[in-house]
């Protein structure tokens, strides 16, 4: 018997220190329909080590190029989440 649960695929792109901690530039994550940005972050944390989790604490996020201020936002199918650590500039 199938549950009828829809799975959504999200692309996650890591930059700078987040890329180093993740060990990759990009990954795809399958999430259940209705999953939030926080659910996505929980999935990423579960797949990586404590250093990665520490780096995520300092990061900001863009969901489909829009700044995420509330991680309870639902992730749409095919979305792209950019993980951006603080950057120094000059």
Q: What is the CATH superfamily?
A: Beta-grasp domain
CATH architecture: Roll
Number of helices: 3
Sheet with most strands: strand arrangement: 2-1-5-3-4
**Structural class, from secondary structure content?**
alpha+beta
How many independent structural domains?
A: 1
Question: What is the level 1 CATH name?
Answer: Alpha Beta
User: Could you tell me the number of beta strands?
Assistant: 5
H-E order: EHEHHEEE
Name a few traits of the molecule.
90 residues; alpha+beta; Ubiquitin-like (UB roll); 5-stranded mixed sheet; 3 helices; 5 strands; 29% helix; 29% strand
Give a written overview of the molecule:
The chain has 90 residues and is α+β, with helices and mostly antiparallel strands. The chain has a single domain (8-84), classed as Roll (Ubiquitin-like (UB roll)), CATH 3.10.20.30. It is 29% helix and 29% strand. A five-stranded mixed β-sheet has the order 2-1-5-3-4. α1 packs antiparallel against α3. The model has no long low-confidence stretch (mean pLDDT 92).
Fold blueprint:
Blueprint: E1 7-14, H1 16-22, E2 26-32, H2 37-46, H3 50-58, E3 60-63, E4 66-67, E5 80-84
Parallel strand pairs: 1-5
Antiparallel strand pairs: 1-2, 3-4, 3-5
Helix pairs in contact: 1-3
């Amino acid at each position: 018997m199938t549950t009828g649960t829809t799975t959504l695929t999200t692309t996650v792109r890591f930059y700078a220190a987040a890329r180093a901690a993740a060990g990759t530039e990009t990954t795809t994550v399958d999430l259940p329909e209705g999953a939030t940005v926080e659910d996505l972050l929980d999935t990423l944390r579960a797949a990586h080590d404590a250093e990665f989790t520490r780096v995520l604490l300092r990061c900001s996020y863009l969901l489909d190029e829009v700044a995420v201020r509330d991680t309870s936002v639902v992730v749409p199918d095919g979305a792209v989440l950019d993980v951006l650590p603080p950057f120094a500039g000059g």
